[in-house]
Amino acid sequence: MASNRFYYYDHESCSFVELKGRKRRLRLHVAAIVAVGVLVGSLLTWGMDRMVQTPEELALRSENQALQRQLAQVSRRMETVSAELAQLSETDQDLYRTLLETDPIPSDIRQAGVGGTDPYAEFDRFSASAASLLRSSSRQLDRLERQLGLQRDSYRELTRLAGEHAERLDQLPAILPADGRVVSGFGMRNHPILGIRRMHEGIDIHVPRGTPVVSSADGIVLEINRGNGFGNYVKIQHPASGYVTLYAHLTKAADGLKQGQRVKRGQLIAYSGNSGLSKAPHLHYEVLDGQGRSLNPIHFFAPSMTPAEYQKLLAESEASTTSFD
């Protein structure tokens, strides 16, 4: 059976014309409309996907923004802590190390940074703002770790030095070893027994026989002996300060005192007397340095006295031109 044909009446030619070309054009128009519809639909779908996000995507975006705000806040707090550490470092340099007489930490060590390849390259895969924030925070954290480590090591060293300094102070001969008046000082004096003028290498403290004599500083008993014109004497070594003290013309050493024994400042070590080349009961007291040279003991008493007391003691020591020994 023949397929259906369609005609239309053409008034110009006054005849019927078959609809062959018109049908083809109609199909083309329909195809074009369908293609445009598909394109528009695709564009609308893509746009809506960009504009409308799922609840999960919205939650992730909000969480990311919150994390960035928190990270920025942490960075600001790290900056504050870093500034406080810098202040501690200045105190360390200007005060503690000056008081403890030790060298400051070199500036190149304090300013040392992270060298080598870029340690923050892993952050480059993120967005520019996130990468910048992560780099800044990581750099601050690394600086804080270096500052904390350096300050920890510095304080550990200062603690050790402070302990040594305290021990040195404890072993500094700083108090009068007997409760009496200084009747002869350090320097050239007339010897009351030998009748000659010679160097008096200590001070004489006028005290009755049997007066308690104490150590003028922490130390170790170096010698308990008799001789050299000193009569009975005790020597105490103070290794941390580098001094040796001598207590002479004694009646006897304290009961139980032995060579090598540790003693504390103010501890009883002997009793005064009149042994050896001595004119009258008194205590002869000397301070010697590490080379055995005699030093003026008066200079060591200043820290334990008021200025007026020290001036009075100095005047008493200089008043007499004759020693007791």
Give your account of this protein's structure:
By secondary structure, this protein is α+β, with helices and mostly antiparallel strands. It has three domains: 7-50; 70-170; 181-319, Glucose Permease (Domain IIA), CATH 2.70.70. 42% of the residues lie in helices and 21% in strands. The protein has helices at 20-51, 55-99, 107-110, 128-170, 307-319; strands at residues 7-10, 15-18, 181-184, 187-190, 197-200, 203-206, 212-214, 219-226, 232-238, 243-253, 262-263, 268-272, 283-288, 294-295. Helix 2 runs parallel beside helix 4 (128-170). The model has no long low-confidence stretch (mean pLDDT 79).
In short:
This protein has 325 residues and is an alpha+beta fold. It has helices at residues 20-51, 55-99, 107-110, 128-170, 307-319, and strands at residues 7-10, 15-18, 181-184, 187-190, 197-200, 203-206, 212-214, 219-226, 232-238, 243-253, 262-263, 268-272, 283-288, 294-295. Helix 2 packs parallel to helix 4.
Features:
single chain, alpha+beta, 325 residues, 10-stranded antiparallel sheet, 21% strand, Glucose Permease (Domain IIA)
Examine the coordinates and then state which fold CATH places here, giving the name of the CATH topology of the largest domain: Glucose Permease (Domain IIA)
Q: Please identify, by name, the CATH architecture of the largest domain.
A: Distorted Sandwich
Query: Which value, in Å, is the CA radius of gyration?
Result: 49 Å
How large is the count of helical segments? 5
Please tell me the total number of domains: 3
> Tally of extended strands?
14
**CATH class (first level) name of the largest domain:** Mainly Beta
Distance between the amino and carboxyl termini: 160 Å
Q: Helical content, roughly?
A: 40-55%
CATH superfamily of the largest domain: Glucose Permease (Domain IIA)
The gross shape turns out to be: rod-shaped
Element-level helix/strand string: EEHHHHEEEEEEEEEEEEH
Structural class comes to alpha+beta
Largest sheet: 10 strands, antiparallel
Mean pLDDT equals: 79
Uncertain parts = none
Proportion of strand residues: 15-25%
